[in-house]
Specification:
Number of helices: 6
Strand content: 25-35%
Number of domains: 2
Strand order of the largest sheet: 1-4-5-12-7-10
Shape: globular
Distance between the termini: 67 Å
CATH class of the largest domain: Mainly Beta
CATH architecture of the largest domain: Sandwich
Largest sheet: 6 strands, antiparallel
Order of helices and strands: HEEEEHHEEEEEEHEEHH
Length: 225
């Protein structure tokens, strides 16, 4: 039986929804979809979405232990200072990170392309494996304010993931970047299978949220001082 013809995928979240609703699990060894104006094609290997910028892909085999993103997060946790916005999970080993990433989708964002659009609605976390991301907010019709840059070993998209509200800022790649995307359903599956590790992850994300809030307060104090 051939899968039903999918609708156009306008965002990463939309593409993920299309995958789940229209196709069910993909039985082939490779799955690829992309973010903007994607068109889905059925192949013997699975479902392929083609688009212009953000590319998300996942192997349905287990993730390799030598995935560079795993080493990035292990190193970032070991080297993080108290004020650094890295995900710090001291009890996690290589296998824990590999297991987490096996529940998500790998994302490649070429330099200059957008990962997250302000006011978009999606509940997804992005774990930065490589590259650099810039966060900006449109504060008026003629003005865009730069909020900061995020580096490998950290996470973005945490606010909308936690509170289910629209994205508060835009995020673009200022260098070719690779990330892992974990949507709410992915996290719930990870939590069901690994409850202790899921609790560890939420505490690490809460630490990042707290640091970013404190940094925002410091910036406000400096601007009015």
């Amino acid at each position: 039986m051939h899968p039903a013809k999918p609708r156009l995928a306008r965002t990463v979240a939309d593409a993920a929804s299309t995958k789940r609703k229209n196709h069910g699990p993909v039985t082939g060894p490779f799955f690829l979809f992309s973010a903007h104006k994607g068109i889905a094609l059925s192949t013997r290997e699975g479902i392929v979405f083609r688009a212009q910028s953000v590319i998300v892909h996942q192997s349905y085999d287990s993730m390799a232990d030598d995935d560079p993103a795993v080493a990035t997060f292990l190193r970032a946790a070991a080297d993080a200072s108290p004020d650094e916005e890295s995900l710090v999970l001291p009890r996690w080993q290589r296998a824990d990170w590999a297991t987490l990433f096996s529940h998500g989708q790998r994302v490649r964002v070429p330099r200059g392309n957008m990962l997250i659009r302000q006011n978009a609605v999606e509940r997804a976390l992005y774990f930065i494996g490589s590259g650099i991301l810039e966060v900006t907010s449109v504060v008026s019709y003629f003005r865009v304010s730069s909020i900061g840059w995020f580096h490998p070993g950290s996470v973005v998209g945490e606010l909308s993931f936690l509170d289910s509200k629209a994205r508060s800022a835009e995020i673009r790649a200022v260098a070719d970047s690779e990330l892992y995307r974990l949507d709410l359903q992915d996290y719930q599956a990870f939590s069901d299978a690994h409850p202790r590790e899921a609790c560890d992850l939420m505490f690490a994300i809460a630490r990042v949220v707290a640091l970013r809030f404190r940094n925002t307060l410091s910036n406000i104090e400096r601007s009015i001082g």
